[in-house]
Amino acid sequence: MTIAGPETADHPKTADRPETADRPETADRPEAADRPETVDRPEPADPEAPGSAGAARRPAAGPFTSHRPHRVAVIASEPVSLFNLAVPELLLLKVQLDGRPGYEVEMCTPDPGTVTTSGGADLVIRSGLDAVDRADTVIVAGTGAAEHPDPRVLSALRAAGRDGKRIASICTGAFLLAEAGLLDGRNATTYWAYTRQFAEKYPDVVIQPDVLYVQDEHILTSSGYAAGIDLCLHLVRTDYGAAVANTVSRLALVAPVRPGGQAQFTDTPLPAETGTSLAGTRAWAMTRLDRPLTLTDLARHAAVSVRTLSRRFHAETGLSPLQWLLHQRLERARELLETTTLPVDQVARASGLGTADSLRQHLVRRVGLTPSDYRATFTRLPARELPAEPEQTSGASPYG
Q1: What is the pLDDT of residues 328-337, one digit of tens each?
Q2: What letter does residue 127 receive in the DSSP assignment?
Q3: Long-range contacts at 333-336 (CB < 8 A, ≥ 24 apart)
Q4: Spatial contact of 77 and 142, defined as CB atoms under 8 Å apart
Q5: Are β-strands 103-108 and 213-216 bridged in parallel, bridged antiparallel, or unpaired?
Q6: Could you read off the pLDDT of 172-182 as tens digits, one per residue?
């Protein structure tokens, strides 16, 4: 598929775009191959911390609180990727809240009727772009039409941007967001094979080539294919919390939520689940998140050296062992805050984060909410059941 193409007359002029030369660069994620510290001390580097590619300029998390389902419009620009188009509906429609749907998903296209897919198949889409006006979130599926985007799609996206709607893209759908001027001055990503072309065509976009997805305020972009799954699970987690997102991942038989800063595996594809995979060690560690674990413990379980463990861990997950454990422990803490009445210090111990101060620091860094605020925002428990205790905020955290 050729992406490069002539500029359209509908595209905003470069002179009107915000400059990006002085934007701070994203901090490199440290490796853990030669570190002596134990894994039960989560490292400060968080792939989804504010300022990172996974959460650049991200607003505080919050649920969708309307009495009606969250409305999602998925734009199909032909030839559209059938996989990209199907992912939002397959995942988002699995969200059920007390027996009611969490989302309504409406596929739409400029000319309702038969739409051609990138694989040559035809499908029927009955809704036009007026579905964008009704939506709370707009998702642009990957398309082979990035060379000559439909001006009507660009106009609909610009209108959605002016209205402050949440807008996301999967794979090459990012080209349409950029063509509409929605990514100027923002962090973004797309399918790794097209990042160079993207960067050349849209120099005012801060392209992040090695992440699964990027959120910059209300605009989200994801890389190719399966990263659209990660993006949709991230939307669910943002709207309805970690417990709901993890339930959806289990129902859909996909991996739990992965952090946006995880690599796209451009040069190192995911290995098969063979006898040399560390999947068994990760599963073993998941049952021991509340216990002290060292790199030596993990390496001993995997029957490899610490250096080999770190190298394989990064190849299979895109994260160091320390980053992966921190992510899993924060996910465990979020589920406990949403689904139990455990005091914050007990949640911290049960998730392996040690102290209430440590949990608070990492949760604020990740989602911008304290544990008590997060619980109040995402809990599924009646208010009368929630603990009424102050959080511990004094004293230094041994977890940094």
Answers
A1: 999 899 889 9
A2: B
A3: 333/359, 333/363, 333/371, 334/241, 334/242, 334/243, 334/363, 334/374, 334/378, 335/242, 335/243, 335/246
A4: no
A5: unpaired
A6: 999 999 999 99
